[in-house]
Amino acid sequence: MFQFTDEYFMQQALKEAQYAFEKDEVPVGAVIVINNKIIARGHNQVELLNDATAHAEILAITSACSYLGAKYLPDASLYVTLEPCLMCCGAMYWSKIGRVVFGAADIKNGYRHITQENWPFHQKTELVGGIMEEECARLMKDFFKTKRK
Fold it and tell me: Which of 16, 25, 57, 83 is catalytic?
């Protein structure tokens, strides 16, 4: 079986982020993968749903759990274009997601504002950061440039 790369799946998450951008949402996208197959997709819908919790990661986790008929995702990888916030880390923790791969760092709101002793993910979760970081960061910068006019 052909093995897709982290870059391939991050590109799919970037497509979701682009959908958010086009809908005037903060452009964050996510996909959830099991056995080389995307089982869920999500992009920010905070404005559309008037819901502060409608982050790409939360929507993708909800979709994946519904698809699988399960509350835990230990065999899944979540690809997200921006470093997760603490709220999303909590959802990842409780879903026991196996792997989290993010693109751009979020210096202001990312999970790294806490110490390593307070690891926000499930203890078995693998974390990879910086995949397609420039492309992910560029989309965020382009979005916020349109807001500063």
Answer: 57
